[in-house]
Amino acid sequence: MMNKQQAARELVEIGKRLYAKGMVAANDGNISIRLDERQILITPSGVSKGFMKAEEMVRLDSEGRVLSRFGQPSSEVYMHLEIYKNRTDINSICHAHPPYATAFAATGKTMRTDLLSEVAIALGEIPLVKFAVPGTPALAAALIPYLKEHVALLLANHGVVTLGESALQAYYRMETVEHAAKIQYLAQSLGQPLALSRQQLEQIKRAEKEKLIEDITRDILENLNSGKDE
Ligand SMILES: [Zn+2]
Predict the structure, then answer these.
(1) Are 201 and 120 contacting, i.e. CB atoms less than 8 angstroms apart?
(2) What global pTM score does this model have?
(3) Ligand 1 centroid, distance to 3 Cα (angstroms)
(4) Which CATH architecture has domain 4-190?
(5) Measured in angstroms, how far is the CA atom of residue 184 from the centroid of ligand 1?
(6) CA 219–ligand 1 middle distance (angstroms)
(7) What does the pLDDT look like over 161-219, one tens digit per residue?
(8) CA of 9 relative to ligand 1 center, distance in Å
(9) What is the DSSP letter of 50?
């Protein structure tokens, strides 16, 4: 189980970064962390993500009932609960309105995943979810078909939602989406962006897999060696 105080501190810190990076305006956006199988901690409604206090975070059960003594949860609580229900591997969700990525979502355009290796590796395809009114169960329902396969989604005429095993991973995915959207926008304004070929994308994925195996092997060897010294 994730410690509640630690989770609250992480939400505050990530809120500050979202705000400082211009990925939200006024009281936009919401972030949550799964505490255990039955509870989540979510940012409060009507508070700027740049000025939150740890004690303002709202604890909910998996049906959305408020367990904290006070505080009103974010209006996007349905979306968060639906994602956790569909993805037991996910422990944090980040929702924001970053300008470049949201501009794609506001023009009905999907982002390209064949321009940058970071996008190909960290995000994969970023689907565009059809419009539903923010803060309603309809928005949560519109997400369901995409949840199994994706960790980053554009919400039509609205914003972006990213999923992570940790709060930092969900936040970094938000940064990567926005950075990639900005680069694609700039590249297109310069001319015709050059796509990575299928072969290059396969090479990138293979190199990433090999690096992962190397890292795991090194960790195992280091653990074995440190065990010997004791
Ligand atoms: Zn929103």
Answers:
(1) yes
(2) 0.92
(3) 27
(4) 3-Layer(aba) Sandwich (3.40)
(5) 22
(6) 40
(7) 999 999 999 999 999 999 999 999 999 999 999 999 999 999 998 998 898 899 999 99
(8) 22
(9) G
* 161 Cα: distance to centroid of ligand 1 (angstroms): 9
pLDDT digits (tens, 9 = 90+) for 15-29: 999 999 999 999 999
**How many whole angstroms from 127 Cα to the centroid of ligand 1?**
16
Pairing of strands 30-34, 92-96: antiparallel
Q: Over the stretch 140-166, which tens digit does the pLDDT of each residue have? A: 999 999 999 999 999 999 999 999 999
Question: From the CA of 192, how far away is ligand 1's center (Å)?
Answer: 31
Distance in Å, CA 29 to ligand 1 centroid: 5
Residue 142 Cα to ligand 1 middle (Å): 14
Q: How many CA atoms lie within 13 A of 139 on its CB side?
A: 23
Model confidence at 229, pLDDT cuts 50, 70, 90, reads low
Q: Are 65 and 128 a contacting pair, CB within 8 Å?
A: no
Cα dihedral sign for 159, 161, 167, 168?
A: negative
